[in-house]
Amino acid sequence: MTVFPSFIFQMISPTVFFVGVVVALSASLLGVFVVGRRMALISDALSHVALPGLAAGLLLGFDPFLGALAVLFFSVLIISSIERQGILSFETLVGIFFTAALAIGLLIIPEEHLLESLFGDIAKIGYLEILETALLGFLILFFIVFFFREFSKITFSSDLAWGEGLNVNRLNLAFLLLLALSVAMGIKIIGALLMGALIILPASAAKNAAGSLKGLTLLSIIFGLISVFVGLFLAGAFQLPPGPMVVMVSAAIFGLSLFVRKA
Amino acid sequence: MTFLEVKNLSVKFPDFKALEGISFSAEEGKITAIIGPNGAGKTVLFRALLGVLPYEGEIIWHKKPTLGYVPQRLEFDRTFPLTVKELLLLKTKWPNFWLPKESALKEVVNSLNHTRAGHLLDKRVGKLSGGELQRVLIAYAIFGQSDFLLFDEPLSGIDIEGEMTIYGLIKHLAKELNLTVLFISHDLNIVSEYADSVICLNKKLFCSGVPEKILTPEQLKALYGAPITFYLHKHEEPVKHHHS
C-alpha cells in the first residue's frame, strides 16, 4: 500500500473505492453496447425516469433507491410492451416517459433533496447503499459477462442474431432492464443525471481509440475506472461535488480520444 | 438420405396467413432453391426453420442439424469495431473470445480459408467490401461444423473472386464439406444452374422437383400469376449483374 500517498486514502475510503469500482465497471461495460447500438440518449433519459421513485421514497420514508428501482423497472416493461405494438418508436416512448417522469419528480421531490438526487454524493453513502450497490453491480456484471456474445451479436446486427435462433426481443428487454438497474445503482454515487454520462463517455472514448471489440471493451473499462478515481480524488482535493468531477474527467478523456481516432 | 422433412407447415400472423400447409423435404448434401414472388413467405419459412417463429405442422430433422444462416441484406453498424476474427469467435464458448485457444483460432482460419477470406482475419467487418463481406458471412455460417446452410437470397451480382460467383462458391462448399443448402432466389437462371431441386412457394406449395421439370412456362405462370419468359441455358454462365 505504498504505491499511493496516504492522503489519497484519507479522501477515498475503502468503501468509496469499492463502490467506485463496481459502478465504473458496470457502467463502462454497459456503455460498450449502449454506444454500439446508438442508444446513448436512452440511458440519459432513463436516469430522469428514476426521479419520481426517488421522490416517493423520500416523501413516504422508504429507501429512495428502491423507489427509483421500481419506477425504472416498470417503465422499461411498459415502454417495451407498447413498442411491440409497433405504432410508436422506442425513442418516442422513452421521450414521453422521461419528460413525464421528470415533471412528476420535480413536483413531488422535497426541495432540500433535489440536488442530491440529481447529482448524488458518494461521500454520504452508508452501509445499506454499499450493500445495494454491490448486489446490483455484481448482478449487472454477471449478466453482461454471461451474455457478452449475445449482446455483441445483437449490437453488431440483429439480423444475424435472430438467424442464430437468439430471442432478440427478450435479450433487448433484458438489456434495458440492466441499463435501468445501473442507473438506479448510480443515483447515490454520482446522481441520476450524471449516471448516463458515466455509461456513455468511457465507451465513446474507447470507440474512438479501439480497433477491435476486445480493445473497445477493455479501454472502456479502463477509462471508466480512471474517470471515477481521478474524479473522486480531484473532488476530495478541491472540495468539489464528486459526481460532476467524475463526469468532467470522463469528458476530458473523451476529448483526448478524439486525437487518436481510428474509425 | 433425407435431412429435413417439413410436413403441413403453416405460419399465421394476427392479420394474415404467411404459409399454409407446406410440405417438402431436403436431401443431405443437395442444394435446394426456394422460388416465389415477393411476399410468398420465403423468409418466413426460413424463420420457422430457424426456430424463431411459432408454427403449426411438423419440422422433422432426420439428424440433429447445426444450422448456418446468411441473411439477405446484413444491416449493421459499420463503425462498430468488430474484427472478422472476433465475429467468428463470438460463435465459440465465451473464454475463447477473450483468450482464444489455438484450436479455436485454427478453426476460424480454416473457415475463412474455405471462403477465400483468410487474409481478412484481422480486418474490421465495417471496412470490408461487398464481396469480402459475403465471403466472411459464409465463413461465419459454416464456422462451427455447420451442416445445414440457409441463404436468404445472396446477392447474385457479386463476384467473389475472378469469375466465381457466390453461388459457385456455395456449390463448391456444399460438395467439399457435404453441406445441405437451402437458398432463396429470384434469379431463375441461377436456380437452374446451381440447384439440385426447386420448391415453388406462394403461401402454399405450388410445385417441387428438379429444375428441368419445375422451370417450365406453365409452372412459372401458375406460381407468379403472369407468364414468365425464361429459357434454360444449360451450359452457359448465368447472366451477371454488377452492383459494385
From TrEMBL, chain A:
Alphabetical UniProt keywords: Cell membrane, Ion transport, Membrane, Transmembrane, Transmembrane helix, Transport, Zinc, Zinc transport
A Pfam family of this chain: ABC-3
Subcellular location: Cell membrane
Tree of life domain: Bacteria
One GO term of the biological process aspect: zinc ion transport
Topology in the lipid bilayer: Multi-pass membrane protein
Membrane-spanning intervals of the chain: 12-35, 56-82, 88-109, 130-148, 173-201, 213-237, 243-260
InterPro entries assigned: ABC_BtuC-like, ABC_TroCD
Cellular component terms (Gene Ontology): ATP-binding cassette (ABC) transporter complex
Signal sequence coordinates: none
Protein purpose: Involved in the high-affinity zinc uptake transport system.
Homology family: Belongs to the ABC-3 integral membrane protein family.
Protein name per its UniProtKB record: High-affinity zinc uptake system membrane protein ZnuB
Source organism of the structure: Candidatus Azambacteria bacterium GW2011_GWF2_46_32
UniProtKB/TrEMBL annotation, chain B:
GO molecular function: ATP binding; ATP hydrolysis activity
Keyword Nucleotide-binding set for record: yes
Presence of keyword Transmembrane helix: no
Coiled-coil regions listed in the entry: none
TM segment ranges: none
Pfam families linked: ABC_tran
Domain (ABC transporter): residue spans on this chain: 4-228
SUPFAM superfamilies per record: P-loop containing nucleoside triphosphate hydrolases (SSF52540)
Keywords tagged on the record: ATP-binding, Nucleotide-binding, Transport
Listed PANTHER family: METAL TRANSPORT SYSTEM ATP-BINDING PROTEIN TM_0124-RELATED (PTHR42734)
Name under which the protein is recorded: ABC transporter domain-containing protein
Provenance organism: Candidatus Azambacteria bacterium RIFCSPHIGHO2_02_46_12
Upper lineage: Bacteria, Candidatus Azamiibacteriota
